[in-house]
Structure formats: structure tokens, C-alpha cells
Write a structure and sequence with these properties.
The complex is a heterotrimer of chains A (89), B (251) and C (198). In chain A, the strands form 2 sheets. A 5-stranded antiparallel beta sheet of chain A has the order 1-4-5-6-7, with no helix packed on it. Chain A has one helix spanning 10-14, and strands at residues 4-5, 25-28, 34-36, 41-43, 49-52, 59-65, 70-73, 77-81. In chain A, strand 4 (41-43) and strand 5 form a beta hairpin. Chain A has 1 helix and 8 strands; from the N terminus they run E-H-E-E-E-E-E-E-E. Chain B has 2 domains: 2-105, Beta Barrel (Elongation Factor Tu (Ef-tu), domain 3), CATH 2.40.30; 118-245, Rossmann fold. Chain B has 5 helices and 11 strands; from the N terminus they run E-E-E-E-E-H-E-E-H-E-H-E-H-E-H-E. The two termini of chain B are 36 Å apart. Chain C has a single domain (39-191), classed as Sulfite Oxidase, Chain A, domain 2, CATH 3.90.420. Helices cover 5% and strands 29% of the residues of chain C. Chain C has helices at 60-65, 93-96, and strands at residues 23-24, 45-49, 55-59, 72-76, 81-92, 106-111, 116-120, 130-135, 138-139, 149-151, 164-170. In chain C, the strands form 2 sheets. In chain C, strands 1, 4, 5, 8, 9 and 10 form a 6-stranded mixed beta sheet that branches. In chain C, a hairpin with a 4-residue loop joins strand 4 and strand 5. In chain C, 37% of the residues are buried. The chains are: A mainly beta (89), B alpha/beta (251), C mainly beta (198). Chains in contact: A-B, A-C, B-C. Chains A and B meet through strand 1 and helix 1 of A and strand 6, helix 5 and strand 11 of B.
Chain lengths: 89, 251, 198
């Protein structure tokens, strides 16, 4: 087994977003499976990070880190559901 | 509470090693001082970045071993075969050494104190984030849900935090530990060596789904996949099982 | 400004003969964007499709029957490791393409498992590229791209598609897996073309 999971995305993504996307739920564009980004199969021994659907193995997202920028390719995800703290009354 | 504050983007800070503590032949705990450390939750990790004199740089993630909200950060690192970062942290780093660190990271594989029962399943070095949870629970006022730990190791010599795990158990503490030895058992052990299976799991985790337990499974990828499958096959709710895979090595 | 960590030495080392930013390594790191495909020789097929839709296919036996070369080449990975003097056995793309009629300028290479990479067709010609099936005297291991991979060492190693199965010849360039995700469209290590905009 040569993959880890989406918990591995938390650090790189927290460079970019103020929210933790590993607790977000993502809908796979290929098979429709919806699950936490943390549960994705992540291949991190690569030129970038590749997160694949644990159901169908298709690519959910790619993250490439350059010296002064990050590329985020989310084409494999149709919807991201990101939890926010409940609004104060 | 501090954690409800808006998160900024994570940046790298400089961590200084203040103490080192051997745990097993292949693991060591490093106690770090990280200026302005905001505290962390049990189960979170940090990214560690090392830079050599020729500019070569590389980074790895390590789970935080210390209890939540503590002001120092403790990492327990296992030396991985051909591991350039782990062999540095386990064999070379000494008090006074510095490297870059980013964190705390991760909101998914986190235990927040509650009355729910918790099953912790660790394979090898997967015990590290679960130890943060055990230590956090121990430091908390009584009244929290019970913890059960299943810790799978190759042999007794591979048990990380052996003394602490042994002595955390106390009457009415609501904490139980079960070992699974996959290669070599201690003298007098009733079972032959073997991997975690449905029977061992049933003995250690008899809770019914209506108690709404939480499950945390951590270790090498193969171990986590197998353990999570066993839990689901035994009727435990998949959506309550949180997993963290450490990759092919370790354990 | 990074903090230098006392006593830390990476596995790689600098060498003035390397392209900029690279480190020399003695091992052969395995990088992959997904699970390792397992393809048996009797299932293996390699297809070149021209811009007009004409297909040329080779079975494993066909590939083995073609004249082979044993190039010794240097590898440069965009993740900064370089490995010099690697030995391979494979069929030159000049032999593969000898009977392929095309006016296309671009190629999109495809692999078992779905990986793709693109490059100008002229970079596959004139002794610059092979379909390689042996490394270091042994059949190519699946984790290094076996049964066969593309080998085009004058570009960063992500262009040397592992588990190669197809080349599509195109009139217009089409970025592949990493080229569409931030990596440079061409990828010349000597000009350090790692990312978009380099």
C-alpha cells in the first residue's frame, strides 16, 4: 500500500485556506461517493499531492507547491461541503 | 475559547529541542520549545522541515504526543528504514538543535473530551496521536467516557510508552488496554502471535452502537485498512470511525 | 529564510555537473500519482494513434521482436533528485514511428492507470526517446514503470511516463496530468523549467 490519507493534505492546504478542508466533505465527480477529504487516498510520493476517491480511485484533487505559489486542481470534486461554526445568536 | 477564534494561515516557526527521551530501540521522544505555541488538540500533528547546509530541504509530518493545551510540543518519532528525516530526529538531534515546524495541523483526527466511549486502535507508531488522547483524558477532570485501547505491535520490545501505558490503568479510571503481538509474545501470553482479527476485536470492543462510541484507528496504511474493515464487518458505524494512515512503513 | 539544522545531511548531494537545483542520489526513488498498475505481458498493448485516427499497435511479442538499444542515460526528477548513468534496454521511438505517417507536432502519452504527459513530437525523435522494458539488466519492475515505460531523459522524469500504453499524435498541444496542474509544459531541466511561468 503506497498511499496515506487526506489528513496529509491538512498542512499544505492550511497554507492557502483559513479553513481546514480535511474535515470538509467532498463529492467525487466520477462515482458520486461523498466522504471526508481526510478519508481520501493520498499519494504524496509524487511531484505533487494527489488525492483519489477511496471508492473508485479517480483523482479528486491535485496540489502542486511551487516556491512562491500553490496550484490547486479540484476538477475531480463536484461539491465541497465545508463546516463553519454556527452563527452567534 | 481560543479554538473558536478565526484561524490564520499556517506559517513556519523555529522549534528548539529542549530534551530527548528514548522510548524503544527505534523510537525517541523529542521535547520542543516552540515560541508562541497556541496549544493543540489531541490527535493533531505538525510538519517538520529540515534544511541542510547545502540548501537541501525536506519535510515530514509527525503526530503530537503530548496532551492537548500543553505549552511544549512532544513528538515521538520512529526511525524508518532509509528515512533521512527520522534517522536525524532519532539518532542525531540533541538539546539545543533547531528546525522549522508548522502546526498544529488537522481537525479531523481529533478527540475532544466528551462522555462518549472511545475505542483507540493503534498499529506500531500509530500509538503516538492516540497517546495524546490518553494523556489529555488523564489530565481532564473525571467524568469522561471510557477509553479502550487496542495496541498492535510486533513484540513486547516494540511497545512505545510501555511504562506509562501500564501505569495509566487504575481502578474506576475507565481506561483499559489490550495488546496484540504479531511476531513475538511476552512469556506466559495466552495467545500465539498473530494479527488483530475479529475475535480479538470483539473481546476488546464489546460496545453496542447505541452508545455512540467514537473510534480512532492509526498506524501503517495496511494496518488501518484491515482494522477499519474489521470494525465495519463487526457492525460498528463507518461514519464514526476516524482513521489516520502513516504510509507503508512503521509499525 | 530557512533555519539550517545542525548535523542534518540530506541523502542527495550537490554536483556541478547536474542541472540547476538538483541533488545527486545513489538510490532510485519511486514516485507515483496513484496505485501501481499490474499489467501482464500477454495483456500488454502499445498503440500510436495519428491525428487522422490511424492506429498502429504492438503486442508484447511485437515489441520484443523490434531492434533494441541499451542506452545509458541520466535521470532528472523535478523533485530535485538526479541519478546518473542509468542503463536501460528498449526500442527507440525512431523505430516505433518509422512507418507512422503524421504531420502532427505534438504527442500526448498515456499510461495504464490513466496518467498522461505531453511533449512536442520532435522531442521523441532523433535518438531522444525509447520504450524501455529493462532497467539495470533486469526486466523493469512495476514500481519503476514495468512492463514498459517511456524514457525521454532530456526532459524532467515526469515526462518519462511509466506503464506506457499509448501515444496520441495531435495537431494542437494538450497538457497532461502534471502539466495541467502547475508543472511546466515543456520541462527542460537545464533551464530549470519546473513550474508554469518558469
Amino acid at each position: 500500500m503506497s498511499f496515506v490519507d487526506g489528513n496529509d493534505l491538512a498542512g499544505p492546504m492550511r497554507e492557502v485556506f483559513a479553513v481546514d478542508i480535511t474535515v470538509a466533505r467532498a463529492r467525487c465527480g466520477s462515482c458520486g461517493r461523498t466522504g471526508a477529504v481526510a478519508e481520501a487516498r493520498v499519494y504524496d510520493r509524487a511531484p505533487g499531492l494527489v488525492a483519489r476517491c477511496p471508492g473508485c480511485e479517480e483523482v479528486l484533487l491535485r496540489v502542486v507547491r511551487g516556491p512562491d505559489r500553490v496550484w490547486l486542481d479540484l476538477r475531480g470534486v463536484t461539491v465541497l461541503e465545508i463546516p463553519l461554526p454556527a452563527a452567534e445568536a | 475559547m481560543a479554538r473558536a477564534a478565526v484561524l490564520g494561515r499556517l506559517t513556519w516557526r523555529v522549534a528548539t529541542v529542549t530534551a530527548v527521551r528514548p522510548e524503544t530501540a527505534t523510537t525517541r521522544t523529542l521535547v520542543l520549545d516552540v515560541p508562541d505555541w497556541p496549544g493543540h488538540e489531541a490527535g493533531q500533528h505538525v510538519d517538520v522541515r529540515l534544511t541542510a547546509e547545502d540548501g537541501y530541504t525536506t519535510q515530514r509530518s509527525y503526530s503530537i504526543a503530548s496532551a492537548a493545551d500543553s505549552s511544549t510540543v512532544e513528538l515521538t518519532v520512529q526511525r524508518v528504514v532509509d528515512g533521512e528525516v527520522s534517522s536525524y530526529l532519532v539518532d542525531v538531534a540533541e538539546p539545543g538543535d533547531r528546525f522549522e515546524l508548522r502546526g498544529p495541523i488537522g481537525g479531523y483526527f481529533v478527540w475532544r473530551p466528551s462522555v462518549k466511549p472511545v475505542l483507540l486502535v493503534a498499529g506500531g507508531s500509530g500509538i503516538v496521536p492516540l497517546m495524546s488522547m490518553i494523556r489529555t483524558r488523564k489530565a481532564h477532570p473525571p467524568g469522561l467516557g471510557p477509553f479502550k485501547l487496542i495496541y498492535s505491535v510486533r513484540s513486547p520490545a516494540d511497545i512505545i510508552y510501555a511504562d506509562e501505558i501500564r501505569h495509566t490503568r487504575a481502578p474506576d479510571d475507565g481506561y483499559e488496554r489490550n495488546y496484540v503481538f504479531t511476531r513475538e509474545t511476552p512469556p506466559g501470553w495466552p495467545d500465539p502471535p498473530g494479527r488483530l482479527d475479529a475475535a480479538k476485536l470483539a473481546r476488546a470492543a464489546p460496545w453496542l452502537p447505541r452508545n455512540e462510541p467514537e473510534y480512532f484507528v492509526c498506524g501503517p496504511t495496511g494496518f488501518v485498512e484491515a482494522a477499519a474493515d474489521l470494525l465495519v464487518a463487526a457492525g460498528h458505524a463507518p461514519e464514526r470511525i476516524k482513521t489516520e494512515r502513516f504510509g507503508p512503513t512503521g509499525g | 529564510m530557512s533555519v539550517i539544522t545542525r548535523g542534518f545531511r540530506g541523502r542527495g548531494r550537490r554536483d556541478e555537473n547536474l542541472p540547476p537545483g538538483q541533488y545527486l542520489t545513489e538510490d532510485f526513488p519511486v514516485l507515483s500519482a496513484g496505485p501501481t498498475p499490474r499489467v501482464l505481458p500477454d495483456q500488454w498493448e502499445f498503440t500510436v494513434t495519428t491525428e487522422s485516427g490511424q492506429r498502429h499497435s504492438w503486442s508484447w511479442a511485437d515489441l520484443q521482436a523490434l531492434p533494441a538499444e541499451t542506452p545509458t542515460v541520466d535521470l532528472h526528477c523535478v523533485t530535485k533528485w538526479s541519478k546518473l548513468g542509468t542503463t536501460w534496454r528498449g526500442v527507440s521511438l525512431d523505430v516505433i514511428m518509422a512507418d507512422v505517417e503524421s504531420v502532427a507536432d505534438y504527442a500526448l502519452v498515456g499510461s495504464y492507470g490513466g496518467y498522461t504527459t505531453n511533449l512536442p513530437l520532435q522531442d521523441l525523435q532523433d535518438g531522444q526517446a525509447w520504450i524501455a522494458y529493462e532497467y539495470d539488466g533486469e526486466p523493469l519492475d512495476p514500481e519503476h514503470g514495468g512492463p514498459a515505460r517511456l524514457l525521454v531523459p532530456h526532459l524532467y522524469l515526469w515526462k518519462s511516463a511509466k506503464w506506457v500504453r499509448s501515444i496520441q499524435l495531435l495537431l494542437a498541444d494538450e497538457p497532461g496530468f502534471w502539466e495541467s496542474a502547475g508543472y511546466h509544459n515543456y520541462g527542460d531541466p537545464w533551464r530549470e523549467q519546473r513550474y508554469w511561468g518558469d
